[in-house]
């Protein structure tokens, strides 16, 4: 008798589940670095295990689908799609491990908040928030609630009708310009900004890294839509972006060595380069997804 559990979800549903979990994992991983939040980091690592589990179910579903060669070729493309998502999950886990291993980014972490879309942690909720639903808070703040920490339990991608409890910790994601308003509406605490003295050299360095992050996210979105639509133009754009990120990585390596003498936190470069490596992994995985379209695999 087989000891392998038969997956209850369809192959398509499993792939969508993996994609959704990967997006949440990335949010938690970057948040853990910004706030040095070990709980968020640990949850991101647990999600890596869950994603691996769902990937196994996806492979089982594909193997159960039949032996027709044409169908097998299409299923192989889907399995590779899932594998690329797992690579992105691995990159998110590497980001989370920076927090677990106490590898600080020092002053650099505050600059992560300058991204167009950021994820923040909200503690000490106001009484008027108690009992409100996820949908209510998302409508009033213009931010998306990606996770709720409720005592010792994590609720990922909470449903719109879920009510908020008094001791909940919210992880919300959205445009940077909405952060202050969201914190004012939800929390008794005011966001604290530390004064950061940083040279123009470092600002340029960080601009490079943020560009890599944006390109990586764009590559992932374009590759996903290219797979859905079979659009070769989108797939070729992902290929161009991947080549550009490789070039930017080379520039960053040289530039960091040149400017490291201008600031005191040289030891934090180790964590910075780990972030760069993970961003490059995301872009490479997106490129592998786009290759399925360029090679004519439906």
Gist of the model:
This protein is 63% helix and 8% strand.
Q: Quote the distance from N terminus to C terminus.
A: 36 Å
CATH fold group of the largest domain: Methane Monooxygenase Hydroxylase, Chain G, domain 1
Largest sheet: 4 strands, antiparallel
Shape: globular
Task: Count structural domains.
Answer: 3
**What Rg, in angstroms, do the CA atoms define?**
21 Å
The second-level CATH architecture of the largest domain is: Up-down Bundle
Count, helices: 9
Q: What order do the SSEs take from the amino end to the carboxyl end, as H and E?
A: HHHHEHEEEHHHH
Portion in helices: 55-70%
Biggest sheet, strands in spatial order? Answer: 1-4-2-3
Give the helix/strand layout:
Elements: H1 11-35, H2 38-64, H3 69-100, H4 108-111, E1 117-122, H5 134-141, E2 144-150, E3 153-156, E4 169-175, H6 179-186, H7 200-229, H8 232-259, H9 269-294
Helix pairs in contact: 1-2, 1-3, 2-3, 3-9, 7-8, 7-9, 8-9
Task: Describe the protein.
The protein folds into 3 domains: 11-100, Methane Monooxygenase Hydroxylase, Chain G, domain 1 (Up-down Bundle), CATH 1.20.58; 115-186, Alpha-Beta Plaits; 197-294, Phosphate transport system protein phou homolog 2, domain 2 (Methane Monooxygenase Hydroxylase, Chain G, domain 1, Up-down Bundle), CATH 1.20.58. Strands 1-4-2-3 form a 4-stranded antiparallel β-sheet, with helices on both faces. 63% of the residues lie in helices and 8% in strands. With 298 residues, the chain is α+β, with helices and mostly antiparallel strands. The longest helix has 32 residues, at 69-100. It has 9 helices and 4 strands. The radius of gyration is 21 Å and the shape is globular. The model is unreliable at 192-202 (pLDDT under 50). Strand 2 and strand 3 (153-156) form a beta hairpin.
């Amino acid at each position: 008798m087989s000891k392998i559990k038969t997956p209850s979800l369809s192959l398509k549903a499993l792939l969508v589940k993996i994609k959704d979990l990967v997006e949440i994992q990335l949010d938690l991983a970057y948040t853990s670095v910004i706030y040095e939040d070990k709980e968020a980091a640990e949850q991101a690592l647990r999600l890596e295990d869950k994603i691996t589990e769902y990937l196994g179910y996806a492979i089982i579903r594909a193997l159960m689908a039949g032996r027709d060669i044409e169908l097998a070729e299409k299923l192989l493309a889907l399995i590779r799609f899932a594998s690329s998502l797992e690579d992105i999950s691995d990159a998110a886990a590497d980001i989370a491990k920076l927090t677990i291993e106490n590898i600080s980014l020092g002053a650099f972490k505050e600059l992560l908040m300058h991204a167009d879309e950021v994820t923040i942690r909200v503690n000490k909720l106001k009484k008027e928030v108690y009992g409100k639903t996820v949908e209510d808070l998302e409508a009033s703040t213009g931010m998306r609630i990606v996770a709720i920490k409720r005592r010792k339990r994590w609720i990922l991608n909470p449903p719109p009708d879920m009510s908020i409890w008094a001791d909940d910790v919210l992880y919300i994601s959205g445009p940077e310009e909405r952060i202050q308003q969201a914190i004012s509406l939800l929390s008794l605490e005011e966001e604290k900004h530390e004064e950061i003295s940083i040279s123009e050299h470092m600002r340029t360095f960080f601009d490079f890294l943020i560009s890599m992050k944006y390109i990586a996210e764009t590559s992932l979105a374009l590759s996903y839509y290219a797979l859905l639509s079979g659009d070769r133009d989108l797939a070729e754009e992902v290929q161009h972006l991947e080549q550009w990120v490789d070039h930017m990585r080379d520039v960053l390596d040289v530039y960091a060595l040149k400017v490291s003498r201008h600031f005191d936190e040289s030891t934090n470069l180790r964590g910075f380069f780990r972030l760069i490596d993970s961003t490059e992994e995301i872009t490479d995985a997106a490129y592998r997804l786009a290759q399925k379209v360029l090679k004519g695999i439906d």
